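Possible regression after last week's pipeline update?

I re-ran a chain I had predicted before the update to compare outputs. Posting the input and the new output here so someone can diff against the archived version. Not blocking, just want to make sure nothing changed silently.
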Amino acid sequence: MSIERFEQWLTRYKHAWETRDPDAAQAIFSDNATYRVTPFREPEMYRSGIRDYWVRATTEQRNVQFGYEMLATNGDTGICRWNCRFDVHDDGRHVEIDGIFVFVLTDDGLCSQFQEWWHERSSPITG
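New output (post-update):
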């Protein structure tokens, strides 16, 4: 699979996060997908579980800005470095995250396996 194919998927992921749209997020995963937020947490399972996770994770986020850089592909697996910034509405924090995604795409361009590693720093919202 080409880097362009993975970047197409990441563009849809970016749109889903920046618009905080759980339906858009759900639509880019296969029916039986697994979504592992951190290595030590049980994965979210299937499209419905992924949608529920996105509702919980993004409800209080505002001003989301997501970026990425594709690092490598091997067959149906892609690796990228990503970053995201957003404000958390309910507690007045500005959050910056930097991380790595490893994900597997199906022939129809949906993600069947998703794994994140990331680190976060936060500060009070100013201004």
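Follow-up from reviewer: compared with the archived run. The beta strands are 29-36, 44-45, 61-74, 77-88, 93-105, 111-124. Marking as no regression found.
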